[in-house]
Design goal:
Helix content: 40-55%
Number of helices: 5
CATH topology: Rossmann fold
Protein name: protein-tyrosine-phosphatase
Keywords: Hydrolase, Protein phosphatase
Enzyme class: hydrolase
Strand content: 5-15%
EC number: 3.1.3.48
Largest sheet: 4 strands, parallel
CATH architecture: 3-Layer(aba) Sandwich
CATH superfamily: Response regulator
Number of domains: 1
Radius of gyration: 15 Å
InterPro entries: LMW_PTPase, Ptyr_pPase, Ptyr_pPase_sf, Tyr_phospatase_low_mol_wt
Distance between the termini: 17 Å
Shape: globular
Strand order of the largest sheet: 2-1-3-4
Structural class: alpha/beta
Bound molecules: 4-nitrophenyl phosphate
CATH class: Alpha Beta
Length: about 170
């Protein structure tokens, strides 16, 4: 385990094609604007969309706000992520449950002391939507994708305020 390098955050949803890639890019944008030494990645709890680019609707609605998702590639959460990352952010309660389930596997594989990732909801520090789910837009309409962006922007600002207050990154 090393304390060198940036603070590492992994955003996690089900498919890694809608919510978590959006959260990744929005959080990275706000972290960079705040000059924090933090890297951001994303993954899905499922294997449904491994190797795929983000959902075309997520890309399009994000692009309208200046966020570029096109180069991202879907991947599944793996046990090593609990060693590599400092913070794993769940988009909803089901994601949180799956993350905690895989954490048990990681503990058995690497030993409890090897794991460093804290686990929280994406909205954990956002007073306007505290611990509320980032709503899954996959089966809905365009408005759902706008709502994901609104939620991710608000939640990311709250996390950056938290990091600044606690001298993280
Ligand atoms: P995401 O959205 O978890 O925000 O990436 C979904 C993507 C795919 C599916 C469900 C949700 N799916 O059932 O394939």
């Amino acid at each position: 385990m090393s304390d060198n390098g940036p603070y590492r955050i992994l955003c996690v949803c089900l498919g890694n094609i809608c919510r978590s890639p959006t959260a990744e890019v929005v959080l990275r944008h706000i972290v960079e604007a705040s000059k924090l030494n933090i890297m951001v990645d994303s993954a899905g709890t499922s294997n449904y969309h491994i190797g795929e680019a983000p959902d075309e609707r997520s890309q399009r609605y994000a692009q309208k706000r200046g966020y570029e998702l096109s180069s991202l590639c879907g991947r599944q959460l793996i046990t090593r992520d609990f060693i590599k990352f400092d913070l794993i952010l769940a988009m909803d309660a089901q994601n949180l449950e799956q993350i905690n389930r895989l954490k048990k596997v990681a503990e058995a594989e690497f030993g409890i002391n090897a794991l460093k990732a804290k686990i929280a909801m994406m909205t954990a520090h956002d007073q306007s939507q505290q611990n509320v789910a980032i709503a899954d837009p996959y089966y809905g309409e365009g408005r759902g994708f706008e709502h994901v962006l609104d939620q991710c922007e608000s939640a990311s600002h709250a996390w950056v305020n938290y990091f600044q207050k606690h001298h993280i990154g």
